Amino acid sequence: DFMQASWDVEEVQAKGIQHLASFVKDKSAFPYLLTCTEVITLAMKTHIDSLDLHVEGCTLLLEILSQALEQGVMMALDESVASCLLHTVRKHSENEEFLSRLCTSLMMVSASEVAAENLRKVGIIPDLLSILRRFLHNDEICLSCCAVLWSLAVSENNADQAVLASAVPVTSAVLQEHLQNGVVAESACSALWALALHGCLTDSDYEPTAALLLDALRMNPERTVLVKNGCLALASLVRLSETAALAILLHSKGSGIELIKDEYHLHFDEPGVAEALCLLMNEMVQYDEVMLNMRSQKMEKLLCEIKLQFPFS
């Protein structure tokens, strides 16, 4: 009430946010803090030129969102709050430290379908891509932005085909830059899977993207989610083009078939990985030349192993 009564007074908003932040460590205050997210974001929007207020507001939002995740509470963002966050992103588009915090907040809230839809409606995708291009070296920003892209791209109501298509080269650049960082690579692979599902890649993208995904699998073999989503992304590419299937067979760093075998044996007790691998193989055998190569590499043996391991799936 104190903050709402004096929207135009920056000091009131700053003091209000600071006072709310003092309750963060008190677990019993969490349900009440949840009701304050809109007040915080509107304070940030009203005082768009105040970096200090934005930093403190964003830090507080991050704390609230972190607790929400820990307690399994899904937070939705309405369109006005999403619009406010977009204005904040644009106002501080050069401030790397602040954007790192803000993008982490966006990643957390975008897990909600409602929030993802509202972020998409206000047109945040081009801004995310711009941030990624500018701060490609920053692993936190790359992780967060790719996770938000994934959430926006998997939305069933997506009408931003052209906008999403422009995300392909940027997401590929993130994966190339952070191949050895398993967490970021996992996020980028997931985003590429969503983009491939929407048919956002062009003919010239199939071969290099398939090769890049194989590199990610080869360099992060122990990461279950990366392996699963990387294989699902490859399956989507192979469904669209034989070129992608041939790129898997003829990868410069070794046969993709051998890599598939290795990944299965490493994750033989993970049904999600097995299912993704089977889906990939199912797409690959649609092409005669590829199927002959898979036979010569005794893929039947691997399929029998999977069938024995998961007889009731």
From TrEMBL:
Catalysis performed (reactions): L-seryl-[protein] + ATP = O-phospho-L-seryl-[protein] + ADP + H(+); L-threonyl-[protein] + ATP = O-phospho-L-threonyl-[protein] + ADP + H(+)
InterPro entries listed in its UniProt record: ARM-like, ARM-type_fold
Enzyme Commission identifier(s): 2.7.11.1
Coiled-coil region list: none
Uppermost EC category: transferase
Organism this protein belongs to: Sylvietta virens
Keyword annotations: ATP-binding, Kinase, Nucleotide-binding, Serine/threonine-protein kinase, Transferase
Gene Ontology molecular function: ATP binding; protein serine/threonine kinase activity
Name this polypeptide is given: Serine/threonine kinase-like domain-containing protein STKLD1
Gene3D superfamilies, A to Z: Leucine-rich Repeat Variant
